[in-house]
Design goal:
- The protein has 191 residues and is mainly alpha-helical.
- The protein has one domain.
- 80% of the residues lie in helices and 4% in strands.
- The strands form two sheets. It has a two-stranded antiparallel ribbon. Strands 3-4 form a two-stranded antiparallel sheet.
- The termini are far apart.
Length: 191
């Protein structure tokens, strides 16, 4: 700004007006500067707070990532242990089942041998009873035949004679004695 020259120098009113204008501008600038300084401090404080939050969040994320990695690693280890234990249990159960199958097969074989032995003994016993019965029938028939020859006046029919000479079930049992091993009856001597 240019001041007009006056008799005694510059115009006092203009200079005072200018000074007042400069003073107001300077005060406004200082007020704005103080306001900007205050805002800057608030912004810096907020920036520091955000940096702290960011640092905390970064630490938390790092910790969370580390924890997640550890959890995954532990889960993998646990899964491997469970799988190994399950495999061991499966193998053990398979071995036990195979042993049980073999034991049962051996037991079946033993029982079949016992069955075969008992069937053979029963067959032998039945054969002995059959032979004994045949011998008694033959002996009875001989006795009857001899009795008819010796006693011509006797009126006994051959069927009655046969019935009287056949032993009852209890008599045939009495004529059977257990063999020396005690496993079954031997043929008794026919009198």
């Amino acid at each position: 700004m240019r001041f007009k020259t006056a008799l005694r120098g510059y115009s006092r009113q203009q200079v005072d007006a200018f000074v007042q204008s400069v003073k107001e501008s300077l005060e406004q600038a200082l007020t704005e500067k103080a306001e900007l300084q205050r805002k800057l401090e608030i912004a810096q404080s907020e920036l520091e707070r955000i940096k702290k939050i960011e640092s905390t969040m970064s630490s938390a994320l790092t910790l969370a990532q580390k924890t997640a990695d550890e959890i995954r690693a532990n889960a993998r280890r646990q899964a491997e242990i469970i799988i190994q234990e399950a495999e061991q249990t499966r193998v053990r159960m398979t071995i036990d089942a195979q042993r049980e199958i073999e034991r049962l097969r051996a037991e079946i074989g033993r029982l079949e041998a016992v069955r075969d032995r008992l069937a053979a003994e029963l067959s032998s016993t039945l054969e002995a009873f059959k032979d004994l019965l045949e011998k008694r029938i033959i002996a009875a028939q001989r006795t009857e035949s001899e009795a008819h020859r010796n006693e011509p006046g006797d009126n006994i029919t051959s069927s009655e004679s046969l019935e009287s000479t056949q032993p009852s079930a209890s008599q045939s049992q009495d004529n059977l004695a257990p063999d020396s091993a005690g496993t079954g009856p031997e043929r008794a001597e026919v009198a």
